[in-house]
Amino acid sequence: MVELSIKNMVCPRCVESVAGITQTLNLPVEFVEIGSAVFSRKLSSTESEKLESKLKERGFELIYDRETEIANKVKSALIEYLNHLQENDQPQKLSVFVSEKLNHNYSYLSKVFSENVGITVENYLIRLKIERVKELLSYRKWTLSEIAWKLKYSSVQYLSNQFKKVTGKTVTQYLKSGEKRRKSLDQI
Fold first, then answer.
1. Do residues 98 and 106 touch, judged by C-beta distance below 8 A?
2. Are 3 and 36 in contact (CB under 8 A)?
3. β-pairing, 36-39 with 61-62?
4. pLDDT in tens, 78-122
5. Closest CA to 165 of 128, 135, 127, 134
6. Domains of the chain (ranges plus CATH)?
């Protein structure tokens, strides 16, 4: 089996998209998961070129160097962590979650991530959380207090301050503007 790491593949729709590409190209794919595709054999150079071309058309890239691969895996782990925050009353600390997920020391992962992505792991998580806040606000199902609780903010004020710092708008301004534009998680 041969595993290929794929950049910008960070959500279930990304998995479906990449799986569709591999099926369209009749590649010997075993399974596709966030951040990678596993094949039953090494791809020929022609197959690799076709795969790379189709992936680029959809905003994905094959990852060849180890540090870029690690940064991509950290991104995927952070998206999983965001879900972990919402689903658990007492979630693990970020550093423990990411370290256990990737079997590496957190300070090493953080250093590699910062060097490759250009922001810290913590700031990337903040951006993910703000996009999730926008998503939850768009449903108009929860109050800001409930959203703050779901995402484990210490207070509504802290969430509001982070929201303004990241978006340049208060939550109220954002809601009144009718802005529906959210970033896809792979664009953060």
1. yes
2. yes
3. unpaired
4. 999 999 999 999 999 999 999 999 999 999 999 999 999 999 999
5. 127
6. 2-62 (3.30.70), 66-188 (1.10.10.60)
Query: 29-88: per-residue pLDDT in tens?
Result: 999 999 999 999 988 888 989 999 999 999 999 988 889 889 989 999 999 999 999 999
Longest dimension (CA), the chain: 55
Please state, in angstroms and rounded to a whole number, the distance separating the CA atoms of residues 151 and 156.
Answer: 11
- Reported as type and span, the H/E element at residue 97 is helix 94-102
Residue 69 is inside which H or E element, if any?
A: helix 66-87
Residue 105: both structure tokens together = 């020391």
pTM of the model as a whole: 0.77
Query: Average of pLDDT values for 6-34?
Result: 94
Distance CA 128, CA 75 (A): 10
Residue 27 Cα distances to 46, 47, 48, 56, angstroms: 11, 8, 10, 17
Distance CA 104, CA 111 (A): 12
Name every residue whose Cβ is closer than 8 Å to that of residue 160 and which is 6 or more positions away in sequence: 144, 170, 171
